[in-house]
Amino acid sequence: MNLTLHFSKLLLLVWVLFSGPTVNAQQVLTLEKALNYARQESPDIQKARLSLEQSRENLIARRASLKSSFRLNLTPFEYSHNRQYNDPLSEWYTTESMSSYGTFSVQQPITLTDGVLTLSNSLRWQDSQSNSSFSADPFRGFSNNLALHLDQPLFTYNRTRMELKELEYALENSQINYALQELSLERSVSQAFYQVYEAQVSVNTAREEFENRSQSVDIIRNKVDAGLVAREELLQAELDLMTSRSGYQNRQVELANIKDQFKQMLGMPLQDEVLVLAEVNVLPVDVNLENAMQRAVNNRLEIRQRKIDIETGQFELIRTNAQNEFKGNIGVTVGLFGENEELTGIFDRPTDNQNVGFSLEIPLWDWGEKKARLRAARAAQQIREINMEDEKINIALTIRQVHRSLKNLLTQIDIAQKNLENAKLTYEINLEKYKNGDLTSMDLNLYQNQLTQKKTDLTSARISYLLELLNMKIQTLYDFEREEGIVPDLSSY
Asked: How many structural domains is the chain composed of?
């Protein structure tokens, strides 16, 4: 761990020295800092957050619609002048009227029964007259209609409660999607972070190789001047130096491109300069396969999503079964009507109004449409159930694969570590031979390339293990390093 910290500090110092005048604008990112930045600024997480907000507001709006709603409709002035024909009396007559009216209503949905209760009061002022022979005296005064109306569906499912439940499931699904997006973001940002880190190490290694070759050229030049080796040896060494410089420049270009992709993922301005600092020391973690599989089955949010799919599929079955269904409706209205030339006496002689209606809708023949749609809906429901079982199997397969991969990667790290030690020792031995004139520059070049490759292999093996350990954490929603669960609290979203 200490060696890694020293290496990270050394890498930072080297990067600062080679960054030139842009160092002041450079951001140093650890993995945790990069993750926190991405959770706020990443376009993917922002879209998931907006989708969650949309589902939450839809549910809030639907619940609010189940409370009493108050409405006031006003018509301040209305005038009509009409010429009409009366068939029984065989005469034309003219009507003229002016009016002003308004209606105040209170509507209360009944969630338990899917009915609607409405209380309304309509107040009208009217001045009307007609020149027909059968018309009464002109009327100039007020009228008021106070009514209570109940509209109640019968013999059918409760649409209000179903819609409310669907919105609740939609919100839970959005919460799960947001949590999954956060986990996916952690994986993708970690992969990109370590990719940038590997590219930085590659640049640093290429720089060291270039410096080593520069020293080799100086040694050969001195030998050529002393007449100890042929000039062809110097030409070959200078060619190798040019190749090394080109490789160093190529690594720098690759690093710049990878950083731009990384900044895009984080939601960071492309003009910002970044330097990543990582600890790639590996401490083996004991992961019990059965424990991991059990935690995955208990914790994975995708299984809950499949259960939600099945629940909403049941709603689709109910909705399909209600097509061309036998259903009824009851409408009951009770109220008072009053009229008078003076507003204060409008209910001096009120009239009771009652209206009761019972209607039935009876389907007779639909040529098998409903049965066919039900069969299709049942087939879709069976697909959802199969999908849930497949999800469980896929989770188990993934856990088994990751568990095998973790064991294999530990072996690869040990091998890469020993190969690097051997490559270092081999290079140091052959470097002495080269200085003593017992080895050509081409031969030394092979050992230099071998050492560079072994450094890269060890870094890659360690990063692969860290990413696979992260993958196990995401697959099981359990951190085996810290021995703690990471199941998201959906209520916090």
From this structure: 2
Tokens of 246: 């080109």
Q: Positive or negative CA dihedral for 170, 172, 178, 182?
A: negative
357 and 451 inside one domain: no
Per the CB < 8 A criterion, the answer to whether 126 and 143 are in contact is yes
Q: Is residue 373 part of a domain?
A: no
pLDDT tens by residue, 151-203: 999 999 999 999 999 999 999 999 999 998 988 899 999 999 999 998 998 89
Q: Is 197 found in the same domain as 83?
A: no
- Cα–Cα dist 464/190, whole Å: 11
Q: What is the rounded CA–CA span in Å between residue 487 and residue 172?
A: 15
Same domain? For 352 and 304 the reply is no
Shared domain check, 178 and 121: no
In a domain? residue 322? no
Domain that holds residue 455: 2-57+164-310+381-492
User: 439: domain CATH number?
Assistant: 1.20.1600.10
Which of 265, 305, 315, 309 lies closest to 490, judged by CA?
305
Query: 122, 113, 70: which is closest to 333 by C-alpha?
Result: 122
pLDDT in tens, 260-285: 999 988 888 888 888 888 888 888 88
Could you tell me if 81 and 51 lie in one domain?
A: no
With a CB cutoff of 8 Å and minimum separation 6, the contacts of 16 are 23, 26
**Residue 135: what pLDDT?**
60
Residues 52 and 89 in one domain: no
In a domain? residue 369? no
Domain co-membership, 300 together with 192: yes
Residues 262 and 294 in one domain: yes
